[in-house]
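Page 37, top half.
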Amino acid sequence: MAALAKVECDDHAVGPRQRSYALLCSLLPDEERESFRSAGFLDVSTASGRVYRIYPFRQTEIFKRDRLESYACLQLTVAAPAFDRMIAEYLILRNDERFYRSNAHIYSARVDSKFATACLLLIALDVALVMNLIRKLFWK
């Protein structure tokens, strides 16, 4: 990311990744561009009150009232630089959040309570089995 931060928003970018980065920078308002260059992600606030944190090489995080609500994955139908996906997500979210939510794969960030309960029960069972094994090995 640091190497790309030196790429200016102009037409002299060399490869597809650099051109994609330059295009993304050219679409952003000055304040958002500087924030993206320093933080490495974009925060897009929507009318629903959600904030979408778009990363170049990670899934998008969706926050509601400052709490992580879910993750989103918007897949392009063609191979493209990560910054092209960021451009698509940014523009779609700015214009039609409902369209974004109906086309992106959205996964809950919350741990299912049944899964957590099952994990705790398995841990308790493992501890009981290890204790039983130690008892049989050392206290005959």
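Page 37, bottom half:
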Amino acid sequence: MSMYKVLNPATGVVEREYDSATDSEIASVLERTDAAFVSWGRLAPKERAAIIHRVADLHDERKVELAALITREMGKITGDAIGEVEFVVDIYRYYAHNGPDLLADQPLDASTGGNAWVRKAPVGPLLGIMPWNYPYYQVARFAGPNLVAGNTIVLKHAPQCPESALAIEAIFHDAGLPADAYINVFATNEQVATMIADPRVRGVSVTGSERAGTAVAALAGQHLKKVVLELGGSDPFIVLDAPDIEKVAKDGVFARMENAGQACNAAKRFIVADALYDEFVERFTAEMASLTTGDPTDPSTSYGPLVSEQAVEGLVAQIDEIQYSTLKEGPCITAALERRTVRSGSLGGEKMWPRFGPRVGRLGIHSALSLPLLLSERAVGAINVYSRGKDAFDDRAAELGELFATPAAVAVHNAQILAQAQELTAQLQTALSSRPIIDQAIGILRGRNGGSAEEAFGKLRAISQADHVKLVDVAQHIVDEAVRRARARHAQP
């Protein structure tokens, strides 16, 4: 299965897959980018800048097409997608216009006579590892200045963004950039490590998670490569005073939800003065609830779907942790304990769960339907359905859910029985595999002290309990010690 694919998050359909590069293709890429640097780096900055100016123009001309690609790939609403492309146009134009001046020699005062200056020179091929949240912007801020500076680029984009990655590469080539001065690669993680280690790659830039940054930084450091890491953040939104608390709450929602919340500088912590806290939370929650999710191509949609099923699972896991581990209250717990269906259409103000409701409401979840899994009046669990919309579940939804819950309870009960049987089987297998060692230890103890097998086993058990060590480990120690002594005796002259 290919790791590079267009999985439309609005439909859940994989629309196209792309093969990852072979090792021989990666080797060819490294040769080509290194060869391209020789000629590209020698061009005058103004010549390079002229091509990047054309890159900006082509992004502007194709912005509707480019926006549609990332809407399909990662669910960004059309308006935000077009806005990202327009921002990218400004980035490329900035470096095309200002790059030659920024690269100009800077004279220095030479106190000992002669002439001195600082010259900015290209270093060679660079590797860029880019994320899915801003498919065009992240590439532009890395590739734009570095290409004007005379470096060549190998770009490994996120697996979710293969078509936008190819569209970017096509624009560079259509703008007149030498074919090998910018190369897109569908590389695996192992191939990325190979490229970082290759001496022809002179630097690497990564935008991604802390885990990815740690791995890249370790490799770059090992090979003494320049590295740039942009690993997101946990920016605070601080409210100390607010003449217009409604506007501040709206600003807070925008700060959290811009680009569907997928921004490194999005507000992820809210610190509010005590005197303003209650009103801020009320207005913030109401504003968050007014947002609508849905078809990202629909102008009325506030934000599109989560980028992948994995992202949905992450959100559900976050809610489960709040319910079961942190607060120990919530709809699923109530449904199981009280053996009844429960639902809420406004979690932010739900009195049944005064701590869980507002906490989950601030995550953008406003409705819940929880159904007990009943088997002979005994609850074997409960299932939850969540929605971002308010009042999402009516009586009919509850009735349909209860119909589903009946066979689900049987399935869960059977799964529990199977899990218990598997656990007992594993214990039996462990016991059977341990028996020969225990029998050997009993034989050794009987040989030393006489007595019955029952007495020897009793001594083993007493040692196990006194030392808080498993019985089989005590037996293994006795056997190992006996073997050691026997070998020592045989070794004596």
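Margin note: The chain is about 55% helix and 15% strand.
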